[in-house]
Amino acid sequence: MEVAIFLLLFSLLAITGLKADDTGDADINKYKLQKLSIVGLKTKQSSTFEEGDIDYSSQNAADGDTENGIAITDLEGNPAWSVYLQGEHCIGKVTLYNRADCCSDRLKMATVRAGVSNIPNRNERCGIQVAEHVAQERGGVIDVYCDPPLLATKVSVVLPLKQHLQLMEVMVEEYPLQRCHRPQRRVSILQETKEQSSTFDKMHPARVAGDGYILTLHKQGFAFTGYDSNPWWKVTLSREHCISKVTLYNRIDCCSDRLAGAVVRAGLSPDIHSNAQCGSPITAGQASHLGGILDVYCGPPLRALYVSVDIPDTEEHLQLREVEIEELKVNPCESDERDLSIIDRPTQQSSDYDERYSSDRAADGNRDPQWFKHYRCTHTKYEDDPWWMVNLQGEHCISRVVLLNRGDCCSERLENAVVRAGTSADIHDNPQCGDKVSSDMAAPIGGTIEFVCDPPLVARYISVDIPSDRRSFLQLCEVTVKELITKDACGEAPEPTEHVPVTEQNPKKVIQEPEPKEPVEEPNQKEVIKEPEPIEPVEDQNPKKVIKEPEPMEPVEDLNQKKVLAGPKKVIKEPKQQEPVEEHNPKIVIKEPEPQEPVKERFPKKVGGWVKIQEDAPRGEGP
Questions:
Q1: Which of 152, 439, 488, 521 is deepest in the core (most CB within 10 A)?
Q2: Where in the chain do CATH 2.60.120.260 domains reside?
Q3: Does 2.60.120.260 match the CATH number of domain 193-335?
Q4: pLDDT tens-digit profile of 379-418?
Q5: Does domain 34-178 have CATH number 3.10.450.540?
Q6: pTM for the full model?
Q7: In Å, how far are 329, 518, 587 from 607, measured between CA atoms?
Q8: How many CB atoms lie within 10 A of CB 139?
């Protein structure tokens, strides 16, 4: 009898444990992409090219055969191909197989759209358009990632010009449906009325900045005013929305600096200057990047019928490649959670790969994930336990943190990364927010990874690190933060974990509150000083063309470097005394033992709390 009771209890415990494990995997599984078969589903294209007895019908692009058969439309304006899904799906990735025998460049500027409308151009854009250099490869395999994922019953490929649309095959991958149920959603402005203060010429009307296309041509593809005093652009929404974020796409060929000082406004008045400002004005640093993607967060969210962009108190051209708007869909404008801007807050990281990839790149409001091409992401050296940190300059109740991963290659390097938030300047003393990054979460190139702090955490410092017994890079293209504003949402701040006071033996973990300073122009990015010893992996210079999934390559380690990791905290040996030189990042002030006359030679590289002038290194491949 006792044996039977024991076996029964053991069985119940085993079942309970199994259920707990299954529940624990739910959050991880929602980040897993799964193939969605479209073979046999209904397809349609705007027209069908006819030549002899050869079949060029739409079904050829959804038959599962990537080598035979092709769907081709007539030579026409805005050709389109679509597949009708059975029910709603959370679309995360669409792969296009280009023509292999000739004419592959015809796929240039192709755009993937996904949504619930039967009209392709009314659905949201998935990822970015096919670039010209990507389309040139015959037989190329082009992966397009939907970030954020899109709830859809229909997936389409459209060309915003007069051309044949030709597709060897289209493949679709999806996330579990719950991932598309987000508290924020994009507001479609495709059919809404757009206006601007004036129009430079008939090729640059206001409507171009809300047509859903991100064109890169000089003579079209962006709204462009005349040289106006206080130039503006405005969209009138068909109903009230609770606006939480507005994204501006800057001009890509030249003159991006014209957007400096631009202000986003949202409200209920048709007079744009009567509406509240959303976020901060665009800084000169943000506007300096050609083709920049600039997020402006409304904190708190704003109830609006009108969203506008203007450049106050100046005479200038206003030029906008595209404007995207997001709203809160749960408890509109009454949410207890809001975006916490970290733009221009002091940042720091364990090391800089070189001066182009400094820590402030992850907190500049620019969401362009093209690391190698545009130098808009952070990148540490190849080292033990690399980390990045931002000082919020005050305590906040942190509810979630979102990381934007690298968009050209090597996204898997973020695997095992953890986010921490707390009141200690020593990142390892602060509690962890959410789970560590799994391989599935790190896989999407240019993907976003969300960490939910449960319970919310009182924090002055937020950090990202990769705790490991092997060396790695840490690379972040943007970090965004949300906080709770409800009174006592976080309760009282926990006492920091006891630890040995930080001294000069560990200079990386000593941060002073910096004095406010005027922004300093970035150093000349054309000068590239490389790491002389470590041999870095050669990366794909054309990451958007994906022929085969490459095996991850581990960089060659520098045999002269030793790991100094012992336990959860790093002990860094005191570097040899050298003359300190002037820091190029005024946001981070590191205590120097005895300040001396700064040396202004070449671009310095930080080593711990000191700065070391490196010898000229050979110039060549990037990391």
A1: 152
A2: 34-178, 193-335, 347-496+505-509
A3: yes
A4: 999 999 999 999 999 999 998 899 988 888 888 899 999 9
A5: no
A6: 0.43
A7: 46, 25, 17
A8: 14
